[in-house]
Write a structure and sequence with these properties.
Blueprint lengths: L2 E6 L3 H13 L2 E6 L5 H8 L3 E5 L5 H12 L6 E5 L4 H10 L3 E4 L4 H21 L7 E3 L2 E4 L4 E4 L2 E3 L3 H12 L7 H7 L7 H15 L21
Parallel strand pairs: 1-2, 1-3, 3-4, 4-5
Antiparallel strand pairs: 6-7, 7-8, 8-9
Length: 228
């Protein structure tokens, strides 16, 4: 699995040091100089995780993190700062940061934290059962506790990636989900768009009476240009 990390860091020297360490751990790094453009970059790139440099008063970083979470992106976000103030940590955690590292940071430790967070997020998404109410639609029933799709008492076999995609759609009824949004929720990179098309087409084949004219998974132009 290739991890892509978007780094918001204005200091070129720090970026170069971090890039060298990440390359040894096979983590692809892209750069943003200011948090002000974070949302625009995430919509285009959809990274596996984000590392943000934040220094007092941190208002721009706080606003960027708030907008990111409000938009539905839930990739792990790490904050790197020289501030050791508890209030700064609490505010950023409440806004959706996953980890707060006080600078100077050990780059080996930082890399390990990033890899662990991304791997844990993927396992949680794909493998963990959920104790939540079943969802029914069009004669189908999704059992989140047993991770099964059932129709007329019979189970329809789904791959883990397909169940994760179905769960995402079922949890967001009547909501337009863009490619970057789906990729973020499923911890995918933009390079995996072809496999996303395949998974969507397979789901349509399994649950739609007429996959070319679907009722449940609608073919919005901004979502999919790929025909099943």
């Amino acid at each position: 699995m290739t991890i892509s990390l978007l780094v918001v860091e204005p200091d070129e020297t720090v970026r170069d040091q971090l890039r060298a360490q990440l390359q040894m751990s096979q983590i692809a790094m892209s750069v943003l100089y200011s948090a002000a453009q974070l949302m625009n970059r995430v919509e285009l790139e959809c990274p596996s995780a984000i590392l943000i440099r934040a220094e007092a008063p941190m208002q721009g970083e706080r606003d960027a993190l708030r907008r990111l979470r409000q938009a539905g992106y839930d990739m792990p976000v790490f904050v790197l700062s020289k501030s050791d103030e508890v209030v700064d940590k609490i505010v950023l955690f409440e806004l959706g940061a996953d980890d707060y590292i006080v600078d100077p940071a050990d780059l080996h430790e930082l890399t390990a934290r990033i890899k662990r967070a991304v791997q844990r997020a993927i396992r949680t998404l794909c493998d963990a059962p959920e104790m939540r109410e079943k969802i029914s639609f069009g004669g189908y029933e999704i059992d989140f506790a047993t991770r099964r799709l059932i129709r007329n008492g019979a189970e329809i076999a789904l791959r883990s990636s397909e169940f994760a995609l179905l769960k995402l759609f079922a949890s967001n009824p009547m909501r337009l989900l863009t490619r970057p949004m789906i990729n973020s929720q499923l911890r995918r990179s933009e390079s995996q768009n072809n496999s996303l098309d395949v998974a969507v087409c397979r789901l349509r084949t399994l649950i739609e009476d007429n996959p070319s004219s679907p009722k449940f998974i609608q073919p919005f132009v901004v979502l999919y240009h790929h025909a099943c």
